[in-house]
Write a structure and sequence with these properties.
The chain is of the alpha+beta class and 181 residues long. It is elongated and about 70 Å long. It has a 6-stranded antiparallel β-sheet with strand order 1-2-3-4-5-6. Belongs to the PIGH family. Keywords: Membrane, Transmembrane, Transmembrane helix.
């Protein structure tokens, strides 16, 4: 088990945890920073101060109640649907690939792709905002045309690691895929 520190495309620290279960099975976990309590406090205080200012001029208590409710619901939705704590890629040589995302609320989303549907794993590039970024993706075979690509499944969508991290995962995945063919 080895853990390395990298950065994402925004320069924020992330960690890559590589765990080799066997020569045909490896797991990669990219973890991002936890929810910052300082940021949560700043956003909450900003919304509540704005609501209090509106309340001060209107004397309407519904403004304060609405601000508290909106803040709490917004934080719960952010933690449950947006903030990803870590993403995992489990490559099992003869079986397939499992992709998992764990959210700050504890919710986990897992997808499995059979090895028979996988054409290749590649590093692709894309234009994001005003920069070129790289991402790891799985190319899926067209069911009736095995030499054609039917779709592309991007990996590590939330953590968005930089190229140096992706290359490490890519080389290890290619090593496993080459043993299976």
């Amino acid at each position: 088990m080895e853990e390395e520190a990298f950065t994402d495309i925004s320069g924020k620290p992330i960690t890559l945890d590589c765990h080799s279960h066997s020569s045909f099975c490896r797991e990669f976990t990219v973890s991002s920073s936890k929810v910052s309590i300082g940021k949560v406090m700043v956003y909450t205080c900003s919304v509540w101060l704005l609501a209090y200012a509106v309340f001060f001029f209107t004397q309407n208590t519904a403004v304060l109640s609405s601000a508290i409710l909106i803040t709490l619901v917004g934080m719960m939705l952010h933690i449950h649907f947006v903030k990803v704590d870590h993403e995992s890629l489990l490559v099992i040589g003869s079986l397939g690939i499992q992709v998992s995302s764990s959210y700050a609320s504890g919710r986990e989303v897992t997808t499995f792709i059979e090895m028979s549907k996988i054409k290749d794993i590649v590093i692709n590039e894309a234009i994001y905002m005003h920069q070129i970024i790289y991402y790891l993706c799985v190319l899926l075979k067209e069911p009736f045309e095995p030499n054609e690509v039917s779709s592309v499944v991007p990996l590590f969508q939330s953590s968005k690691p930089r190229l140096s991290c992706l290359v490490k995962v890519y080389k290890s995945c290619q090593e496993i895929l080459s043993k299976c063919q």
